[in-house]
Amino acid sequence: MTLTALPQPSQLLRPRALVPGDLVVVAALSGPLDARYAPDLERAVAEIERMGFRVRLAPLLEAGRHRWWSAARPDEIAKEFNGLLCDPEVRAIVAHDGGQTVFGYLDLIDFDAIRADPKPILGYSDISLLHLVLYARTGLVGFHADVATPGLGGHWQRASAARRTELAKLYATLLTDTEPIGALPAGPSWECWRAGRAEGPLIGGLINRIVLAQATPFALPLERFDGAVLFWEEAGGQASHVWSYLQILRHSGILDRIAGMVVGVPDGIDGLDAPDGSPTLAEIVLDVLGDRDIPVLGNVEVGHAGPNLPMPVGVRVALDAEERTLSLLEPVVRATGDGTGRSSNADR
């Protein structure tokens, strides 16, 4: 089947703000739930409930259910996902984990349902592909944030009590507050890899998904990267792969268009910081950027290495790499009854 390119939105589509007692559904949007991690899912549900929301598990999220490396066939996942998008009781969707499946159902997503009733969709890894595609096709703000099982029920449980409390408050505020959040809480790992300041829409995710998405009919037009702050992370693979992904972004012109970069903490990447003279991640990034004079903030808590700071795709941010600050300059959600939640480029 030949896919016909759809019009690209010029406006940001914000979901409706949640209120206490709203229903949040945890769903298998990609990978399966291994029976060993069912207790992590229970802990994730408890975290969401402590934020003040009701929680329901989607039917495909059943321990041990799988088809190859997926929770189900792509068409089955798409059918359940579309049903959640159309259900007015469901006010947010949290992916239970990442995986390898989202590419299999991009052409089955009900984009009209998203436009009619935009909802927060939370997740990272393979779910970052959903954020990029939904932002490209509808303008929906993507909630690049922790997934349920390895995130809320895993990494969060190994963090200090103070950190868990801080994250829970941040996530709840992100979902319910119609005012700009401002500065995200900086961590001790943050590093200035290239000094400078930038403001622009936040775009990004797992770097291999960014690169692969741009090879599909669902790609973001290059002009959507103009003045953007690109954030990315990577897990597994080789350091040389990261270098190659960045080279692809260079060849595509994306690195010439962005205004700044935020790099997540690397996780399990072979060939970094080895005693044989292997490069650091900062060295790889700066090698590819060359003389492009843009600020780069590194080792930010984004991705697979631990609890995630939320990165709302499409929302305008201010980055000061030397001061090690990243601030959200506009609301992520809209007030109940506030039209469609769209804001024009001029508003951003």
Keywords:
348 residues, 6-stranded mixed beta sheet, disordered C terminus
What can you tell me about this protein's structure?
The protein has 348 residues and is of the alpha/beta class. 30% of the residues lie in helices and 20% in strands. It is built from 10 helices and 16 strands. The chain has helices at 38-50, 74-86, 111-116, 127-138, 148-158, 161-176, 207-213, 239-251, 254-257, 281-289, and strands at residues 11-13, 23-27, 54-57, 90-95, 121-123, 142-144, 182-183, 191-194, 197-206, 229-233, 260-264, 296-300, 311-313, 316-320, 325-328, 342-344. The strands form 3 sheets. Strands 7-15-14-9-10-11-12-8 form an 8-stranded mixed beta sheet. A 6-stranded mixed beta sheet has the order 3-2-4-5-6-13, sandwiched between helices. Helix 4 links the parallel strand 5 (121-123) and strand 6. Helix 1 packs across helix 5 (148-158) and helix 8 (239-251) packs parallel to helix 10 (281-289). The longest helix is centred in the middle third of the chain and has 16 residues, at 161-176. The radius of gyration is 19 Å and the shape is globular. The chain starts with 10 loop residues before the first strand and ends with a strand. Mean pLDDT is 94; it is low at 1-7 and 344-348.
